[in-house]
Amino acid sequence: MAQVWKNRLKELVTYKSALLGMGILVILIAISIYTIITIPYGEATRLWKAGEGFWIDNPRNAQPAWINFFSSKKLPETMILDTRKGGVGVTKIMIPLRENMSKVRIELSFHYDYDDFPSEINLFFTAKYDKSSPHISVYWIKPEGREIKLKDWGISKTETYYISIDNKLANKMRAYLSNKLGKEMEYEITPDIALFAVEDESILKLETVKPLKGEYKMVIEGTVFERNSDVNAKLVVYGKVYGIAGTDHLRRDLRIALLWGTPIAMAFGVVAAVSVAMLQMIIAAVSGWYGDWVDFILQKATEVNMILPFLPILMMISVFYNFNIWVLLVIVITLSVFGSGVKTYRAMFLQVKEFPYIEAAKAYGASSIRIVFLYMIPKVLPTVIPSLVLSVSSFVFLEAALAMLGLGDPLAPTWGKIIYDAYDNGALYKGYYYWVLEPSLLLVLTSLGFAMLGFTLDKIFNPKLREM
Amino acid sequence: MPQESLRLIRYITKRSITIFIVVTVAVYITILIANMGGYVDDIIKSQTYIEISLNVRNNPAYAHLTSEEMKELINKLFEQEIKRLGLDKPFIYRSLIYLKDALTLDLGRAQYLTSDSGSRSVKNIILERLPATVLLFTTTNLIIFSLGLLGGLFLSRHYGSRFDKTIVTLSPFSSIPGWFYGIFLILIFASWFRLLPYGGFVDAPPPSTTLEYVLSVIKHMILPVSSWLISYSFIEVYVRRTFFLMFSSEDYVEMAKAKGTPPRLIERRYILRPTLPPILTSFALTLINSWMGAIITERVFNWPGIGSLFYQAVSIFDSPVIIGEVVIYAYLLGITLLVLDIIYALVDPRIRIGSV
């Protein structure tokens, strides 16, 4: 017996498609192990559900950063300048004035060397005070030296200045630019364009406007009115690319869901496929061996199951009961246990039942359980393995399908969930292709890996066709 | 032969009864799940109670009542309402009434959904959506079926050719479901090239002439049909080819070959004839399955069929619509199984003589 398996394995590696399939699966398993070790599951779900506040420093819907290697147009990355963290280009000085008052001067300067505008600009303040809030003025200095006053106002303890959606600023900039160039703007200019654009004729049209490269500086001048008062500022110039996977509409790093999707998909697919095949085989063997009323009941159960539409029932259960993914897995298995496989396997067992070695077992007084589990199931097992491997893909896609309908686990980050989010937020209309393509590619790889291995196994284990 | 036809009638009756029982059990299970074993009733009950108490408390006509009297009034009205809704009887009892209604196709009224024409009747809602689904998936499955049959025959004739090897190599791609290819097709042809619509049934507003209407529907069908073709035709051709190959190695085929029977005749008489019944069965089952199981494809392409209807119904807990759809599906499947059984009984001499 061992020799037979060894030969089959030897044969398996002679097929290119099997090698390719196994290669893909090894990579996916490696990714799964890496993920489980580096990002614990609790951490992953926490990050995924953390909400926009947590991810506020990330750009929204940013493409993966490596896109810049393939494009001559360099898209901006996110730049964060934080007075509490310091670093290059960040200075903050406090000069005591009379009594308790002090003057604060913060300078945040950075080099901008990209061919596109940032996606968003936000300025976050944290101020320390008891009664009287600090007063702040914000200035923007472009590389050619032009200074623009953005806003001045009294800030609260945590204050955010959303520069990109400051309409007053936009109107001021528009008036200034039309005046300077003597022509009207042909589009609604936004602050993130106006603050970064080259200020010549090109700025008048949306098609021609381009960013000015060079040293930018933001100057924040403030007055605090209490002895222990303090002001800190964080400027975030959001890019259009982020990390190796990009971000979604909630600024979340897609990397987390892509990574965690791997072990979840593999576990879901493999566990479902193996349990369904094994349980179906046991039912078929029992049905075939005992015959009579046992057979009758089990066969009727498969017929009832056949009449019940699988996906709709599954949808109903997951909507009403809102289970997590592993309970869902159990339900998927339960609903599939009486699937059509039972009929196929039963036909095989009916043949096996008549084999002489079963007669022999009966003759020496082997128990029914012994015969079913030790003599009949092992005989049929090899013929079942190829279809088992093939069915993994369909279970992986089933999970994605449920997620596509918005019915998956509400917590687990999975590939299907990313596609659902992308679909729901119009990724295909808006051209955020990376958002759909990344999880899709992983799904396709997983599915092809199992399918290629399965088809080859089919050739080896069921050699009926090779003789022709 | 009276004895033979008697046996036939007995066989068909027996099968009808079995299938009916199976359908009944399946429908009852659906009713249990769709009502969450009575849990949905509790939701309705508490909603009704809140509504009634709000009504009473906000009604100036009852303002003079003491809080005791008011409570009494609320309870009285609540009980009346519960009786009107039929919720006063235990769930098991009502589930049996639901079962009777479902089996007699008295599908009742939807809780929230309405048809486009404004009807609340579950039957109308389903009948309005059914044609779109039947149109799309019957077309698709007919194309896949014919491709499978012709392609399978062709490949079994040219076993081992380059074309045969290509199909075998491509068959793993069928492990990816149709809706998934659909997303890519939308990405390429709707989003990128802007050639075809993203989804839907017909342009908005619908064209006025019939010809334009038909053309518009066809335009909307191209992507969903292609997505299924990409996914399912390779495996279909592969499976048929394998099937035909297995049959063409039977002894009687060898015998016919030895006799010098022309290949076309061998194909028709010795390969197609014995393989056609199982092929037809699988086609019939796939077809009916696709009417129900294509919920995701319909969602991806925003196709207004019963799949999308089911999705809507499930997401707002509209149990009458859910049960209605499953009942119709169960009936369709049950009838198909019965018809197939009858056809087999007529065609297959083994059933006629009672050896099976």
Number of strands of chain B: 0
Largest interface comes to: A-B, 49 and 55 residues
Radius of gyration of chain B, whole Å: 27 Å
- Kindly provide the name of the CATH class of the largest domain in chain A: Mainly Alpha
Can you give the helix content of chain A as a percent range?
40-55%
Unreliable stretches of chain A, pLDDT < 50, 5 or more residues?
none
- Strand count, sense and closure of the main sheet of chain A? 5 strands, antiparallel
Order of secondary-structure elements of chain B:
HHHHHHHHHHHHHH
Shape of chain B: globular
Report helical residue fraction of chain B. Answer: over 70%
Tell me the Rg of chain A in angstroms: 32 Å
Main sheet: strand order of chain A:
2-3-8-5-6
- In whole angstroms, the N-to-C terminal distance of chain A is 26 Å
Number of strands of chain A: 9
Strand content of chain A: 15-25%
What structural class do you assign from the helix and strand content of chain A?
alpha+beta
Strand content of chain B: under 5%
Structure classification of chain B: mainly alpha
Q: Using the alpha-carbon principal axes, give the shape of chain A.
A: elongated
**CATH fold annotation of the largest domain in chain A:** MetI-like fold
